[in-house]
Amino acid sequence: MSSTPTVSRPVTLIAPMRPAEGPWRRAWRQFIRQRSAIIGMAIIGVLVFTAVFAPWIAPYDPIEVLLGKEEGIQKRSGPCIHLLGCPPDRPQHLMGVDGNFRDLFSRVIYGARLSLFIGFVTVSISVAIGVLLGAVAGFVGGWVDNLIMRVLDVVLAFPFLLLAIAIVSVLGPGLLNAMLGIAIVSIPAYARVIRASVLSAREEEYVLAARTIGLGPLAILSRHVLPNAISPLIVQATLGIGTAIIEVAALSFLGLGAQPPTPEWGSMLSAERNQVFTAPHLVFFPGLAIMLTVLGFNLLGDGLRDALDPRLKL
Amino acid sequence: MLRYTIRRLIVAVPVLFGVLAVTFVLVRLIPGDPCTAQLGEKATEAICARFNAEKGLDKPILVQFGIYIRDVFQGDLGTSIRFNRPVTQLIAERLPVTLELGFFALLLACIVGVPLGIIAALRRNSAIDVATMVGSNIGVSMPVFWLGLMLAYVFALLLKDTPFHLPPSGRLTAGVTSVPFYVVWGWNIDPKSGFGQVLQFLANMYLFNSLITFQWEVFRDALRHLILPAMALGTIPMAIIARMTRSSMLEVLGRDYVRTARAKGLADFVVTIRHALRNALLPVVTIIGLQLGTIFSGAVLTETIFNLAGVGRILYDAISTRDYPIIQGFTLAIAFSYVMINLLVDLSYGFLDPRIRY
Fold first, then answer.
1. What CA–CA distances, in Å, run from A150 to A93, B19, B338, B358?
2. What is the pTM of this model?
């Protein structure tokens, strides 16, 4: 705090009374100062809004086949937007019609629901397992630590998507299995973050103090050690949601994830990928949706890291 | 240095052992009996009984694991159901394609990413800096499979009649053949021998092969086929490399020795390249090493889109035909090469930065 006293004003040694600023408040102030974080928040805000109000935004049912229900509907016809010169007597399809006579816009809108679900559930699974493993490894130490970390090293020895492919091809294709596959391969990242925080917290004096007054290991872990590991975990998890969404979409693209007619962006792309030269809009819009969503979570994650971790200034 | 190398190799052993265990367990997790899973429609009762005895599947699970390890070390990764050929042979055939693609993509990422990062750092907060940072944020969020399809659309269809037209699939135009270098040089080799297989492996990297034999027509054609997949595959690493170069340069540019170099009147260019860049590159190399996983993972998607006969493409086909020996064998081979390449990257730090002493 540097104030520049002018001659006319008496120097005040004590700053005017202000409520003490807690770490969360300071983090929030740092956070909203960053443009990228704001953009990320805005994108995710739009996404959440779309997901919640999907039935009201989408003009059609996402899996309804419109053949025979709508006159003159053309398979894979391009976008028809009245404002942009599409004849008003034709029904409006903002992103065109897909290969099964479904309204692509409605499918993309409903896809937001599915993507948020995929992101949050996948990350929750790997955070739950990762935190448990990392905390145990860091807190117990010794051969338990060694064993857990070596097993996680093996997971890391595989390229990310490849191990997920192998797992899902064995479990059988399907959205839940794809999510499980991605969740499993993401565990090491969370376990390592937690373990590192636990290891550094274990040596702190407040943990020693807690032990001195007779707290059990579980109480120390949950009340004193883990709260200190929370901010790197939040950052990792936010970035992880973006990764989970993109990787599950990749699995769906390979035919291992969501199966048609589920309105999942990756599987929508997969269904029409051979039509990219004749109906590029069917590939363009779902992919754009994936990209923007992932971008939102990445920007938010970067913003959170800069706000929560004062040591890291990129 | 030698001691460190040996220690790293020893640490890698349990990891590789774990990799073996994972690939072994994976195939055991397939619902149904392994005979039907591995032989597909050919599996009759008599054949299954022989198969089970041959593979030791009637023995306890730990013995089976032992047999699996023995087979792997003897170079036997099973036989593909669909191709009815040894998996090792298929790997020798397909891996060069992926290595060539991955290497080229990474090269592209470095050639574009590093200079962009340097310029962004030197002209901090300028338009080019902002554009680089925005671009890199978008780049890391890019779904490889979407980018690939869109690139194919733009370069193969929209730019069809321009000089920028690029082919969207395959490795060479029909009619163009890459003559292996050992044929060009008139070597007499046995294609079945180990040496012959190594030569075939090398010759299957078309860019490399046509370059050393001066087949310029082939080189040009192979290069044009490789640009689109490499752009798709290289975008994420490029974005990450640009970002890392920028932040690393910014840090180094504020150091005392850079100020000293400027103070003694050295040209800006010399200060940037000789004093700042050399020191800024080490974290960049680390990041480049970490991109190998992205490259291997992305190769599955890229090769599927651009119809390249590499390991990614064969894995994709194997998934849809449930060709488990291929999935198992290729996963193992890729994980092995991944661990080994990572090891090499780690060891290379000592050469790049003499301050690092193991």
1. 53, 11, 17, 22
2. 0.86
